[in-house]
Specification:
single chain; alpha/beta; TIM Barrel; eight-stranded parallel beta sheet; two-stranded antiparallel sheet; 11% strand; globular; binds ligand FNR
């Protein structure tokens, strides 16, 4: 079938991405931190949940639409922010955003993207903006104002990277920051001419390797030179008061990403957040962190129904979407799944990843005797 790309699940897209990307870029996309127990824990926790299906319930018209922040979404899913999309595919953020818009799901622009928020937002669709704070907080406030100016509906502040994560493989692969050609990465890049020509070659033709985005011109530096003073991401001194400043500045929906403790969820509710993302950052921050899906029930008991609960980390199947809904999430976010599609086949790959998750969600609902999202309850799970 045209458009299926020979990929019939997210794992097939993952394999396409692995083949196309240089090892250093692939491992940046795929891997976790330290001993990498967290990624398997996310998956095991999802796999350990089982369904108790119901039969004979006329499932010939399953409806996957679901409101997120009061607006309908084609399914309870949004694309998570991923900063490195521009090295997976030329102008990758634009392709992620367009595929999401066409599929009718929200897309989250990362503040760590290599593209300015205006250039991504020009694609249209339902857009959210994710923030990491810079050392000079005024630079962050400026980009928050720009995100509002281009129509982003929600601001997501990511809280689970107070310090740099320990990604040892980046050093082994010669992909530390600032990035430069070296003995370790040279052969790797040369052995991937399709990626080299299609991504780096196209940037070079347009004037060079992308710089850090969303900064005033005098602070922009190529990724080969690292951040200038003040422009570094720095959140080790961030606290609830610092986040309250952002809440006051942002007129739209305000979301805290990277919450795993019910008390932090309650604190988010008390400070006026509209939502949280129950997330361990795809096991890319703290390796020993609880699986997001295991943290969800207690958080849903604490704040469910009073604020929007999103969940991410390990979502690879439509059944995972249904499990997260059953345990109290309003919707899931997906990080790697669409990135696999992007790296494997550009925009068509992103579309394929969303279509697969959509079709799987619909099929699982039918198998369970569910006709719409309101019928998903904890009683589905054994
Ligand atoms: C991320 N993630 C992330 N999160 C964030 O808040 N800002 C960012 O810039 C990034 N960048 C980023 C890059 C890459 C390559 C990955 C894989 C992830 C985390 C992301 O938003 C999300 O929390 C996880 O990806 C969810 O887990 P899964 O779906 O990848 O298993």
């Amino acid at each position: 079938m045209p458009g299926d790309l020979g990929c019939y699940n997210i794992a097939d897209l993952r394999e396409g991405a692995r083949r196309r990307l240089p090892k250093g870029v692939w491992e940046y996309l795929e891997r976790g931190v330290e001993d990498e127990t967290g990624m398997a824990r996310n998956r095991h926790a999802l796999d350990a949940l089982t369904f108790v299906p119901r039969v004979l319930r006329r499932v010939d018209a399953v409806d996957t639409t679901s409101p997120i922040f009061g607006q309908p979404s084609a399914l309870p899913m949004a694309i998570a922010p991923t900063g490195a999309a521009g090295i997976m595919w030329h102008k990758g953020d634009v392709h992620l955003a367009r595929a999401a818009a066409q599929a009718g799901v929200p897309f989250t622009i990362s503040s760590a993207s290599t593209m300015d928020v205006e250039d991504i937002a020009a694609v249209g669709g339902r857009l959210w903006f994710q923030l990491y704070l810079r050392e000079d907080r005024q630079l962050s406030y400026d980009v928050v104002a720009r995100a509002h100016g281009v129509g982003c509906e929600a601001l997501f502040v990511t809280l689970d990277l107070p310090v740099q994560p320990n990604r040892e493989y980046l050093h082994h692969n010669g992909f530390g920051m600032p990035f430069g050609l070296n003995r370790k990465n040279m052969a790797d890049l040369m052995l991937h001419p399709r990626w080299l020509a299609g991504v780096i070659g196209r940037y070079m033709l347009e004037g060079g390797i992308p710089a850090q985005a969303n900064l005033p011109a005098h602070l922009r530096h190529s990724i080969a030179r690292g951040a200038k003073p003040g422009a570094l991401f720095k959140q080790d001194d961030l606290d609830w008061e610092g986040v309250a400043v952002l809440r006051d500045k942002w007129p739209g929906k305000f979301v805290l990403k990277g919450i795993l403790h019910p008390d932090d969820a309650l604190r988010a509710l008390a400070m006026g957040a509209d939502g949280i993302v129950v997330s361990n950052h795809g096991a890319r921050s703290l390796d020993g962190s609880i699986a997001s899906i295991d943290a969800l029930p207690a958080i849903a008991r604490a704040v469910g129904g009073k604020m929007t609960i999103l969940l991410d980390s390990g979502i690879r199947r439509g059944s995972d979407v249904v499990k997260a809904k059953a345990l109290g999430a309003d919707a899931v976010m997906v990080g790697r799944a669409p990135l696999y599609g992007l790296a494997a086949a550009g925009e068509a790959g992103v579309t394929r990843s969303i279509d697969l998750l959509h079709a799987e969600t619909r099929r699982v609902m039918a198998m369970l005797g569910l006709r719409n999202m309101d019928e998903i309850t904890p009683a589905l799970l054994a």
